[in-house]
Write a structure and sequence with these properties.
By secondary structure, the protein is an alpha/beta fold. The protein has a single domain, classed as Cytochrome b5-like heme/steroid binding domain (Flavocytochrome B2, Chain A, domain 1, Roll). The chain is globular, with a radius of gyration of 12 Å. The two termini are 22 Å apart. It comes from Bipolaricaulis sibiricus.
Length: 87
């Protein structure tokens, strides 16, 4: 499975023709073609180009919503001198 860095995820924000990717539970999903993610935004609450694992825990739908989108790859944490994960 392709490894996706946080910087790569951030770049896929759905703006100016870029793809719209979201991170969830260690995987990166492509939501570009979804009508639910117009211009990289879902319900004006969630933005593409981010790891939404924590945010989606409070969403009214379960993980099956996210897991229905194509998987781009595995989100890898960036090492920052002891801090292994950025949110």
């Amino acid at each position: 499975m392709r490894e996706i860095t946080l910087d790569e995820l951030r770049a896929a924000d759905g703006h100016e023709g870029r793809p719209a990717w979201i991170g969830y539970a260690g995987r990166v999903y492509d939501v570009t073609e979804s009508f639910l993610w117009q211009r990289g935004s879902h319900q004006a609450l969630h933005k593409a180009g981010r790891d939404l694992t924590v945010e989606l825990e409070a969403a009214p739908h379960g993980a099956e919503f996210v897991e229905g989108f194509p998987v781009v790859g595995q989100l890898i944490p960036r090492s920052t001198g002891g801090n292994t994960c950025e949110r």
